[in-house]
Design brief:
This protein is an alpha/beta fold. The chain has one domain: TIM Barrel, CATH 3.20.20.100. The chain is 38% helix and 11% strand.
Length: 333
């Protein structure tokens, strides 16, 4: 098994991360636990979740699975906080008040005494970063968190946090978790070089572009009934564009020529990009997980890499996977 170092830590993780956004929504608990155990059997040691996934149920399922199997020590657990967990004005965001409570709640659901990687699910622009980093530093010093990271933040915001940590002696981000796939390559312009320069791991989400790169969508307004665009609508449906589908169909043919499935190639392409630590795979079924596992050992040849660059040039985008980030003003249709 190939392991990659997570940022500037000594932590070694597998080049694929098990994403759990589908747990309990729609994947039933029994199958979710089966997915976790199969992933661990295959050697995957990084599991990503959030306190907002299925209203905390994803964390509960992970906690129950690891408690029942006794395999907590094998796993690097990454979870996140930011999104609302209740109706109150302080039941959300990146304030000290919210993060301290959110961490305790996540620890209880996960049935563990520490979180290995605690990430800010989104950046906040109206709270001083000093407050957020001070709270996260206290959680690390209390032994409740080992490392901290961020998700879907602009490069300058991550850089600001690194600078403040350096100046104030706060705990430093070790990773960033951005959206990244062949249809939306914009992180290559600033975020990836910044992370490479300052030693942050990159854990991309949505490497399959919600299945567009697997050829699941025939038309921009015609969604498969079991797709996220159909089941969840909103920002998920907004990511389905005519230009993205056109590229997706070409990508499917490219994968066939390369003797690999489109879904595997989509994940492999992200896994093999410069600066990437481990893309998140979010299987909805055990069958989907089994399909992804061979990517752990695959390598991307330069001919296929160049063909992908011709479909969507480096740094550009034909679909907007940053549409859950209010700071991103660019719209893609």
């Amino acid at each position: 098994m190939e392991y990659r170092v997570l940022g500037r830590t000594g932590v070694k993780v597998t080049p694929l991360c098990l994403g759990t956004d589908n747990f309990a929504n729609p994947t039933p608990e029994a199958e979710s636990i089966e997915i976790i155990n199969r992933a661990l059997d295959a050697g995957i040691n990084l599991i990503d979740t959030s306190n907002s996934y299925a209203k905390g149920e994803s964390e509960r399922i992970i906690g129950r699975a690891l408690a029942e199997s006794g395999r907590r020590h094998q796993v690097v657990i990454a979870t996140k906080a930011h999104y609302p967990t209740g109706p109150g004005p302080n039941d959300r965001g990146n304030s000290r008040l919210h993060l301290m409570k959110a961490c305790e709640d996540s620890l209880r659901r996960l049935q563990t005494d520490h979180i290995d990687l605690y990430q800010l699910h989104r950046p906040v622009f109206d709270i001083p970063i000093e407050e957020t980093l001070s709270a996260l530093t206290d959680l690390v010093r209390q032994g409740k968190v080992r490392y901290i990271g961020s998700s879907t933040a602009p490069a300058w915001k991550v850089m600001e946090a690194l600078m403040v940590s350096e100046l104030k002696g706060y705990v430093r981000f070790v990773s960033e978790q951005p959206p990244y796939n062949l249809l939306d390559r914009r992180i290559e312009n600033e975020l990836v070089p910044m992370c490479q320069s300052h030693g942050l791991g990159i854990l991309p989400w949505s490497p399959l572009a919600m299945g567009i790169l697997a050829g699941r969508y025939a038309h921009a307004q015609d969604y498969p009934p079991d797709s996220r665009a159909s089941l969840r609508g909103g920002i998920y449906a907004e990511r389905i564009t005519a230009s993205g589908i056109e590229v997706g169909n070409k990508f499917v043919r490219l994968a066939e020529d390369a003797n690999i499935s489109p879904a595997q190639l989509a994940v492999l392409w992200v896994k093999e990009q410069p600066g990437i630590t481990a893309p998140l795979i979010g299987p909805r079924t055990i069958k989907q997980l089994e399909h992804f596992l061979p990517v752990l050992e695959m390598k991307l040849n330069e001919m296929t890499r160049s063909a992908c660059d011709e479909l969507v040039p480096p740094g550009s985008a034909v679909a907007n996977f940053h549409n859950s980030a209010p700071w991103m003003k660019m719209r893609i249709v």
